[in-house]
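Please discuss these two lines.
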Amino acid sequence: MSVLEQDMMIPSYLRAPNLNERRYGTVRYDEQNATWIVEAEPVVIELAKRLFPSSNVRIPGQVRFRANRRNTGELNWLMLRFPLNVAEVSQWEQARQETIDHVVYRAELNRQPRPAEPLGMKAELTPFQKEGLAYLLHNRRCLLADDMGLGKTVQGLAMLSTAQLFPALIVVQPHMITNWVRETLRFVSVPSPPDEVVLFEDETTIRNRIHVLRGKKPYELPPASLFVIHYGLIASWKDRLIEAGFQGVIFDEIQELRHTGTQKYSAASLLSESCSNVIGLSGTPIYNFGGEMWSIMNIIDYHCLGDWESFTREWCFGYGNQQIEKPALLGDYLRAEGLMMRRRKDEVLTQLPDKRRVVQSIDSDHKVFDGLIEQAVQQALELDGIQDHLERGRMTRQIINDTRQATGISKAPFVADFVRLLLEADEKVLLFAYHHAVFDLYMEKLRDFHPGKVTGLENQKEKDAAIDAFMNGETDLLLISLRASSGLNLQRANVVVFGELDWSPAIHSQAEDRAHRMGQTDSVLAYYLVSDAGTDEDMQEALGLKVSQFVGLMGDKAETDDERLLGQAAANQHMQRVIEHLKMRGKKGKHGVARNA
């Protein structure tokens, strides 16, 4: 490539400032804090603090930019308008050239993804996973938001292994600790820590290179290459983690950090700031409104979307509002800036069978519902008379929860009958619900199918046993809590049934993709069982709005009317197949063959 061609590829905001013009101040490099310090006239400082909130320091006449490629680009753009004397010219030019190279290559990756060959891995990555690895290696602070089931875990591990970012830290949900340890041992040739004397490697030696942090009382970290901690502990461990000098940090299911103002969020923010390589993983980063993306991206790359006030004012429907006005536009921006990569199954796995969703109306016991809802009705009548704001909010939540539970209980026998029909036709079913009282009814009604259960009340050993029993074919029914499904690989299932609904579409998507993932060889049909009693109708209306936020921002395709009709047709065909199967079993019974054989 000629110098002219290379120069034409340089974005305009990264071209060299004209230093022959008037100078408005000075920029110098603070090596100790890895920061560019600008000391300039008030007009420059005021503009910089207004445009770049992360540069704002409470020192008159001064702003500071953390020395990274994004901030180098912003600072160069500012210098095009207000030229500054550069104290360390060679260092500045090197930083600017690195930023140019980064931006140009990022644009090439966005136009035409290219693969990277992983190093230190025991497993072969698929072509699209190699493209994901190339993206992570180039964009060291970003969100990998691939659809569930496309291997975000192995791509994250491949990035750590290929770039040798050890020691590294993985932050996970509590129930995913065992899975991450298992997947690391399966996929990665875990390197020895610097202080380890290697005489010979065996399974125990390699396993000891992965340390799971336990308890809220910090202790001296042992020599290890990979550390795993769950979100509930990072606030207690934050000082020790910041001092550990991690080369890479992965926040798995980073939607756990969608709420600011918590000790967990503050600890995660400090941890991210202490490391240069920070990756977030989540197929469903948005649980409710698109504004949650600000919280998540702020952990990955501080103020990459500005401060909260500016973000809501410009991206949302007004100051402090969490609903994004143009979700698709924000998604496009994040992808263009190398802050988010997302691939859908239909883009990269053409061999994966389609997933269909069907809303199925079922009966409910109105007498049971009316009896259960009596107290909630009385509380609703009393609600307007409550003056205390906190008490009013508490009672509102209680009413909603009681009504949801009454809805689930009153339709539970009919849900069980529906699932029984599927199981008797040899289908492999995941049944999702929310309330423990509802699960108890399912277990009672379907006990002759020996269902497994993962609901939050079981310990890890019991959960693993239930999952193994389902995957090994010892049972064809697994009951799972809507809020405990992330990270589970249950591709043996071909039918997903929602006995209760959640307010968030992302929860349903997570649940569906426990079955609809790599390794699935059958079509997956998701049934949403709804009744005319209780909260189902209101929750469906709420989900309509929230689905539009999720679909637009993540770049997913909204379901068309034709697709809904196709989904219903698929359901009719599926049910007809079930009926025919049952007819055949019934005929066999008439000829002396046991009906349950």
Q: What stands out?
A: Confidence is low (pLDDT under 50) at residues 1-6, 592-597. The radius of gyration is 27 Å. The chain has 21 helices and 17 strands. Residues 309 and 319 are 6 Å apart (CA to CA).
